[in-house]
Amino acid sequence: MSWQQTLNSTIDCMGIGLHSGRRVHLTLCPAPVDTGIVFIRTDLPEGQGIIPARWDLVADTRLCTLMRNEHGATIGTVEHLMAALRGCGIDNAYVEVSAAEVPIMDGSSAPFIFLIECAGTRVQEKPRRVIRVLKEVSAIDGDKKVTLSPAPTSSFRAEIIYDNTALIRRQEGSLRLTDPTSFKVEVSAARTFGFAHEVEQMRQAGLGLGGSLDNAVVIDGDHVLNEGGLRFQDEFIRHKILDAVGDLYLAGGQILGQYHGIRGGHGMNNAVLRALFADPANYRIEDAPVWQEELATVA
């Protein structure tokens, strides 16, 4: 769909913050055209907790994608929700959050997809703005590399290598965001994952206090500790693609180009956006084409 979209109604949920372990109230609200995605911390004084979903506000990527505004207010673990909003084609929304992190839910984007589908979507009266990649740009850090290349549509390719477990070793995957169902069907249910020894280290550091087998895949050696096992044989690479979709939506709009990540992660994803926007010759912001048959559907 080439027109901007927002939610048709307001919807909310309760969940647990992955790192704080505290209950978090999340509300998704419709927003006017050209608003973009805007997070609002409802636990802070009015005006101080407004955090637009933008790549240049990303302040920390070590354990999640975290943004900070000019007042010092932060919002973390935004990537799974951002991926769901991108996958559902939501251009404009207010996201009210009662704490400093988005609830982790089950560790995937599927619960957020469910919320968006329950709220419904509404087509708005202005064409969608897209970011077309004109020149290839890369971010490189040792054996990690993420590249954005010109392409007619939004597509993702990723590779991960974990020599410390036979469960992963090397996995590759791809996704083309050509319709609203592709993200939902192919990657939205893939959960975040980590290793048992890392979980203990995080908790000793006062982090990951809300993490459990209900919201993450935990690997111990060559085994998955979760009773139900994996949702996909290659759930790990699917989740890495999910993260990339969410991180790249912090560009401020849909990117027309191909993403290729080798050992990528939140930091590398933000670095490639910074490389893209470092030179105006690398990209062009343009209206997505609007086809005649779509005109009658605009609200």
Task: Describe the fold and architecture.
The chain is α+β, with helices and mostly antiparallel strands and 299 residues long. It has a single domain, classed as lpxc deacetylase, domain 2 (lpxc deacetylase, domain 1, 2-Layer Sandwich), CATH 3.30.1700.10. Helix content is 20%, strand content 34%. It contains six helices and 20 strands. The chain has helices at residues 79-87, 110-119, 180-186, 196-204, 235-248, 266-277; strands spanning 3-7, 11-16, 23-30, 37-41, 50-52, 58-60, 66-68, 74-75, 93-97, 121-127, 129-133, 137-141, 144-149, 154-162, 169-176, 193-195, 217-220, 223-224, 254-262, 283-287. The strands form five sheets. Strands 11, 12, 13, 14, 15, 19 and 20 form a seven-stranded mixed β-sheet that branches. The protein has a five-stranded mixed β-sheet with strand order 2-3-9-4-5, with helices on one face. Strands 6-7-8 form a three-stranded antiparallel β-sheet, with no helix packed on it. Helix 1 (79-87) packs across helix 2 and helix 1 packs across helix 5. It is globular. The chain starts with a strand and ends in a 12-residue tail after the last strand.
The tally of structural domains comes to: 1
CATH architecture classification:
2-Layer Sandwich
* Overall mean confidence score, pLDDT: 93
Total E-strand runs: 20
Briefly, what is this?
The chain is α+β, with helices and mostly antiparallel strands. It has helices spanning 79-87, 110-119, 180-186, 196-204, 235-248, 266-277; strands spanning 3-7, 11-16, 23-30, 37-41, 50-52, 58-60, 66-68, 74-75, 93-97, 121-127, 129-133, 137-141, 144-149, 154-162, 169-176, 193-195, 217-220, 223-224, 254-262, 283-287.
